[in-house]
Every structure is written in structure tokens, then in C-alpha cells.
Amino acid sequence: MLGLGNSMTGGAALEDVFTPESISNIAVWLSWNTNITADQDASPGNAYDPVHSTTAGNMVNGDRINFWGGAGSTSVNATQDISGDKPRWSTTTGELGGILSANNNKHMDLSSTITFAANTDFTIVIRFRANDFGGARTFLGHSTDEFIRLMDENTIRVKTDGSSNDVDSGTDLVADKDTTLIIVRSDGSTGNINMYVRGKDSSYFDTATGVAWGSEFQDTEEIEVSNIMASADNTSEFDGTFKDVIIYNGTAVTSAQREQIFDYLEAQED
């Protein structure tokens, strides 16, 4: 019988299969098409009993998503109890398996606030598909003074303790394309922050370890994250689909690890 891990074949050890948990200090792992439930229908929002879920395989178009559970051994979940704020399940090509905030008016709350201590390394990974760039579109947030968001198709703003850093790229994001963003803070008290983008489509940010988004900047502040797809509740919400959210609290991933993450996430829908 052949198993995963360090099994032997022909005298050679098989390498462990990579997952996001292969990297230390994983705090959040919300995974594509995994542990998602909907407790209401599309319209008029009638309650389901039992709920629809990706586990049961009975999600239908427009379902109102109330829960996105942590994958693997992680325990931080994303939840939403307010009917009008619940992301939707979409069967549209390219959106299936994620959570959809159409018309930038949906978001979810994390079950536990993630706090990046001052002078501490971290890594944030978001795989998304934007509908448009017509206004501020938040990836993660905690308040109007603390968030990470798209300002337009080529500017990402990181705001901590009311102070903003805008990172501009020379290449625009394109709507309706799967895109993975990795944000890394490294070097402890120096607080070097770099951003890398990779797209699954050929020639779209297709460098193996990601295309650097703008220039490095420094920010050593404590940062809190309690929302996905919004800064404060109902504020500057994302317009499009989230497919994966991964947070490492205390680890700045290496270039080789970035490539592993990009490869792993992009392979999920193959």
C-alpha cells in the first residue's frame, strides 16, 4: 500500500505534499470550495433547514452564505448573520467555489481578531477575482483607520493607526481574472513590507514567485484584522469573489514558499 508522506518507492523518499499548513504560524486558512454553508435562499431570503453546504454538495446559485469555516487544523472562521450583508454563492464560470460580494455590499467577520504585534513578521495571502475597480475595494480590515484595500486597478493602500501607505504598480489589474496577492512583512523591527501578484492566466503576472507590486515600504505598527471584504462593517466593501484567504502571524514567507503557495492555490480548480 502506498501512502503519502515519507513512503519509499524504488529506494527514494517521496517528498511531503505541500499545503498552506506546511508553513509555520498559520492563523487563518479559508479555502476554496471548503467548509462553506448557506442558511438562506437567494430571494426572498427564506431560511434553509438543514443548511446548504459545500460538504453536502447542495449549494445553489444565489444562496446567502453565513459561514466559511477554517480549513485543515485552523479554527478561525468567517461568519455573517445579517441577511443583506451575506456574500452569495455563484455558479457563474470563474466565481464557483468562492464567496461573491456583488455590487460591493457584502462582507464577513472573522470569529477571532487577528493581531499582528508591532515589529512582527507576517504574511497575508488572498486569491480573488475582481468585478471592477470603480472605487475603494477592501481586502481585509478592522476599522476605517486600519485596512488593506484596492484604491483602483494599480494602487493598494495599507492603513495602520490612521497612517496610509499607497503602493502603486506600473501594471493594472484586470477584472474577471483569478489573481493571487501575497503581502509579506519581514525583518522584525525594520518592518519591510513587499507585495507580490500572480495570475493564473498565461502572461498575466505570470512570474513563478509573483510579480513585485510597486516598491518596498516600512511599517512596524501593530495591525488588527477582523473583517474580510470590508474595512469597518459595510464600509468600502470588495466587489467580486474571494476564493482563498491565508494569514501567517509571525512568518515572512520566502520566495520559494511564495511559489509553492501560488502553485497550490492555482491548482485547486484544475
Poorly predicted ranges: 1-13
Count of alpha/pi helices: 1
Largest sheet entry: 10 strands, antiparallel
Report the span from N to C terminus: 27 Å
Q: Order of strands side by side in the largest beta sheet?
A: 5-4-6-7-9-19-11-12-13-14
> How many individual β-strands?
20
Strand content: 35-45%
- Class per helix and strand makeup: mainly beta
Radius of gyration: 18 Å
How do the helices and strands follow one another from N- to C-terminus?
EEEEEEEEEEEEEEEEEEEEH
Mean pLDDT: 94
Tell the overall outline.
globular
- The proportion of residues forming helix, as a percent range, comes to under 10%
Fold and architecture overview:
The protein is mainly β. It has one helix and 20 strands. The strands form three sheets. The protein has a ten-stranded antiparallel β-sheet, with no helix packed on it. A hairpin with a 2-residue loop joins strand 12 and strand 13. The radius of gyration is 18 Å and the shape is globular. The chain starts with 7 loop residues before the first strand and ends with a helix.
